[in-house]
Amino acid sequence: MTKGRIHSIESMGLVDGPGIRTVVFLQECYLRCCYCHNPDTWSRQNPKAIELSPEELLQKLSRFRTYYGKNGGVTFSGGEPLLQPAFLQETLALCKKAGIHTCLDTAGCGIGDYEKILKNTDLILMDIKHYTAQGYQKITGHSPNASMRFLDTVIRMEIPMWIRHVVVPGLTDSEEHLVGLETYLRTLRNIQRVELLPYHTMGIHKYTALEMPYPLEDVPALDSHALDAWNERLNRNCTKPST
Prior knowledge:
Layout lengths: L3 E10 L7 E6 L23 E3 L1 H10 L1 H4 L4 E5 L7 H13 L4 E5 L7 H5 L4 E5 L5 H8 L4 H12 L4 E7 L7 H11 L5 E8 L5 H6 L18 H11 L5
Parallel strand pairs: 2-4, 4-5, 5-6, 6-7, 7-8
Antiparallel strand pairs: 1-2, 1-3
């Protein structure tokens, strides 16, 4: 029986897709983003994780349907959900059959048959770490090749996307960087929304608890309204409304 390793389940998510959503955080991620606020999801073997079959998870998700109704749904996040492809594929198929809107919050760095996963995915929250290979390597410690392969499949299958990009002071907040991001996004299709996310420091306590050094210890959080003008500009120039 297929089992998924689940870090946690949030029943009233308000920022992980349209409407009110149940957010399922899956264990494991091989990226090591310098601003990651969930280092406790990196290992597949987190002793605090729970194991559920797709059927068991669907039972839990069905109990939350009164919260999200017709306008919300379920978002699979992590960690990197694509690193548990069999569980994800089966669970998405069950959700689709049950009439639940499905969303995948991902950096596109996984394994498995992306087409089988995406055929039951209504929306992708695509985490763009950087638009250059050098910048991507600096932020994540890895090449962007895996992410690009996934993104190519999303575009080919015409799955709607919301783009997310973390803006970090001194790293990804310059005018030059944001203009470059705009140029890159305009080469992509299927974008319905762009969300520039201001860097925050709310995950530092997790590094302390895990006795791990925090890579951006001296970097201040970015004001929540600092990106308003850029968010408006990118949504005006890089998106195509859904039909």
